[in-house]
Amino acid sequence: MRRRAAVEPVIGHIKAEHRMDRNYLKGRPGDCINAVLAAAGYNFGLLLRWLAELLRAIIRAFLETIPAPNIA
Question: Quick one: which of 10, 20, 51, 66 has the fewest CB in 10 Å?
C-alpha cells in the first residue's frame, strides 16, 4: 500500500472527529498546537481501545481458571 493511501483515511478521521475543520487558536503557534492536540487525542483513543482489549483478555483468562461449580 502506498504511504499516501495509508495516511489519507487517518487524516480524514482526525479532521471529522477531532475538530480539525476549524481552528480557534490564533496564528502559526495556534495551528501547531491544534494539530498536536488533535494527534494526541487520536492516539489516546487508540491507546484506550488497546487497553480495553487487554483488560478483556485478562478477565477472560481469569474467568477460564475458575472451575465450574459441581451441581449434583
Answer: 66
Distances from the Cα of 25 to the Cα of 12, 31, 37, 38, angstroms: 20, 7, 12, 13
C-alpha distance from residue 28 to each of 2, 14, 31, 58 (Å): 30, 19, 5, 45
Q: Are 31 and 23 in contact (CB under 8 A)?
A: yes
Q: What is the pLDDT of residues 23-33, one digit of tens each?
A: 777 888 888 88
Contact 18, 41 (CB under 8 A): yes
19 DSSP assignment: T
